[in-house]
Amino acid sequence: MKSKPFELSISQWFNTKGAITLEQLKGRVVVVGAFQMLCPACVAHSIQQLKKMQTIFKNTQVAVIGLHTVFEHHTAMQPHALEAFIHEYRLSFPIGVDRHIPDEAIPQTMQALNLRGTPSTVIFDTAGEICFHEFGHVDDLVLGLTIGQLLSTANGSARA
Amino acid sequence: MKSKPFELSISQWFNTKGAITLEQLKGRVVVVGAFQMLCPACVAHSIQQLKKMQTIFKNTQVAVIGLHTVFEHHTAMQPHALEAFIHEYRLSFPIGVDRHIPDEAIPQTMQALNLRGTPSTVIFDTAGEICFHEFGHVDDLVLGLTIGQLLSTANGSARA
Amino acid sequence: MKSKPFELSISQWFNTKGAITLEQLKGRVVVVGAFQMLCPACVAHSIQQLKKMQTIFKNTQVAVIGLHTVFEHHTAMQPHALEAFIHEYRLSFPIGVDRHIPDEAIPQTMQALNLRGTPSTVIFDTAGEICFHEFGHVDDLVLGLTIGQLLSTANGSARA
Amino acid sequence: MKSKPFELSISQWFNTKGAITLEQLKGRVVVVGAFQMLCPACVAHSIQQLKKMQTIFKNTQVAVIGLHTVFEHHTAMQPHALEAFIHEYRLSFPIGVDRHIPDEAIPQTMQALNLRGTPSTVIFDTAGEICFHEFGHVDDLVLGLTIGQLLSTANGSARA
What we know:
By secondary structure, chain A is of the alpha/beta class.
């Protein structure tokens, strides 16, 4: 039942020294928040939720990563514009730019994850398997519940 | 390390047929939300959070209970007034009136739980032990995380 | 076209020395906010709006008055309970209890103003005439606009 | 006491046929909302306030105009990016791009109005004179009050 582990396809990283891979993060729960800087629901809700998760989960078993999945208005959301956005919104969690192939609207990671749009939340368990995949805003209570269950399961397995 | 299991001391129940005891709820995670109907932070935040939990956790391993812990303005928050409040705020989760002894400001369960005020949140694990005890508003993400961990641990134990 | 000036019918005042009459307030714009302490929309929105108006209009040509128009759950919203509510919600604008006649559900001022329910907002111009009468939450922008127009008109007349 | 009437310096308009001048708008109250598309407070509050004003004041004596005053991150906030922003945020009130001279950080209208930053609100009375000039978010109630007073004064003068 083992599939080849999923990996992000990122053309540029912000807020991190060197590239981040899911492979490196094995053993931790990884929350990937897919957003676009000009998506109103992302700006109003998801960005704030990612910031809050970063604060709550700092230096724990949960890693929070932003994924800039531009699938429209490409010229308006280039990495230099994202950099200004990150500065203005005071974002300090790692953010990867989803790799964009010329002539393809949908960037690579978004295609591979089969995301319907932004915002989307994808959670990987400690083994690197996708165990949560949702389009639209996820309620904080549901998100916390999901992550809490993954953490406990992981700890239980570790102890077993 | 086993202590005598904690039990609620309730003089009257709303939204439930017959009394509820923690003893009956063993095997489920129990979230007790202590509030007062004239406490602004309770009305603005905690009551809404209890409603949301009831919706999310309906018919699952999590039981949500309101506890009306009146420790001030006693004459203004009698059960008949609480009944009007429950009706106006459309609350349908079980709510117990914390037992009040004449001449004692603090009601019985509030004393036993050593609550500092309202709102307060107390969570019992599936074995009936207190494992979360907080005064003031608890962030939804933190609350979900706590409950998720308890559920998983319980399931892990059950499987073991 | 002069009608007999409208007057409030109040059984008890809070946050004021002595009774307030609209007659006394002639020359000022008077905003009357009708509410019930157990009405969720009143607590969430109207009470906050009255507080904000009090802050903005303090010692100006605008008087802000709360009117406790109890038309249901009478035993739960007696003046002693309102007093606790006023204390807990830190209300310091004048609040009058709409006079209640036994066996009549609707109190006197509410009847006279023909209010449909709570919250309701009624504004009297500087001549004591009703010039705004609305059931439900009124947007701050609309409310400010209405008051601003009344103030200017009054000043214009005064100067004329 | 008459000064030369102030005029906007705009390099490009959105949501309008042909250029808009304050000269054309004489006789109406004009609310100019200065913003930047990557300014968090503008996006969270001011843009929503301008939308609400447009809805409330549509086809009345009040004209609502957005002014894109870019004074930082110039390459990220070019007109083509603003166009995407306008589309995503469903803005339909007229928006002018404040004219930017190469090598000057501050655009022309912003300089002339002596704005401190974004968001800023400037209101012109029916004679085209500036009568409100504020940096930061303006409360809806205060904004409505200001506009209401200007409208009444204008009507009073017209009648005189």
